[in-house]
Amino acid sequence: MKGIEKITSVRLAEILTERAAVSSEVITDALYAQDKHGEPFVQILVSGGHITEWDLAKLVTEHFSLPFLMAGNYQISDAAKARLPKEVLFKHMIVPLDVFDDIVCVAMPVMLAYDDIAKIQKDHQCDLYPYVGLITENKKVLTDMHKDYPQWVEAEQKRREEEAKKRAASGAKGGGDWMSIFDAGDQAIQSNKKKPSGPAAAAQPSPASGQKQQPKK
User: Fold this and answer.
1) pLDDT over 70 at 203, yes or no
2) N or C: which end of the chain has fewer CB within 10 A?
């Protein structure tokens, strides 16, 4: 599909910023979470209540010139259901709609970034034709297609929560290490103040006899 490489989270972030639809702080945090932890940018914004999926879908449709489609209203072909592994559908929350030779039409959960689209195309020797869909709608359709999808979602949620706890614990530990470094530095500074050395120490009077030294002739 021509122009598909323009579908990126960074570009969507720019659009949201220009429209003042979501605060810059939230956008920055969402992009970071996607980059470092693999959490989908769009889903972070929606699940966090920062923007509705309808408003986000409207922006994506308008700015990326993509068609909108409710997956539940489409008669999904058997060929489409069998074209991609369910693990791929689950991971990216995409719904296969139809197949035309090597072209696979799919409904995205609002938006799927180009990097993910390109990887799917490469791994499964196909060209994706994406439609803008809704997160809630795709979840419903995937559940109807695969009865084990809810269990997968639950397990995935637990995995993400465990990873978040580990990151939080690691961050707290890291903070402690940094504080130890600062404490050690502070102690060193205080120690140097109490025990001058070098030229400053040489200028101090001798603690010995206290007698005045005789000037040299």
Assistant:
1) no
2) C
> Do 18 and 11 touch, CB atoms closer than 8 A?
no
CATH code of the domain in which 143 resides: 3.30.300.160
Predicted confidence (pLDDT) per residue in 163-173, tens digit: 878 878 876 55
pLDDT at 187 (0 to 100): 53
Q: What is the mean pLDDT of residues 180-198?
A: 48
DSSP state of 131: E
Count of domains observed in the chain: 1
Q: Does the structure show a pLDDT above 70 at 213?
A: no
Report DSSP letters for 75-108, one per residue: ---HHHHHHS-HHHHHHHT-EEEEEETTEEEEEE
Q: Residue 95 forms beta bridges with which residues?
A: 107
Instruction: Kindly state whether residue 11 falls inside one of the protein's structural domains.
Output: yes
Separation of alpha carbons 83 and 102, rounded Å: 10
Q: Of all helices (H) and strands (E), which one includes residue 121?
A: helix 114-124
Q: Answer whether residue 205 is part of any domain.
A: no
Phi and psi at 194, nearest 5°, equal: -80, -30
Q: In whole angstroms, what is the distance from residue 178 CA to residue 1 CA?
A: 49
- Rounded Cα distance between 112 and 84, Å, is 16
Specify if 68 maps to a domain.
Answer: yes
DSSP lists the bridge partners of residue 132 as: 68, 108
pLDDT number for residue 189: 47
Its domain, for residue 103, covers 7-150
Task: Let me know if residue 174 belongs to a domain.
Answer: no
Output the CA torsion sign for 191, 192, 194, 196.
Answer: positive
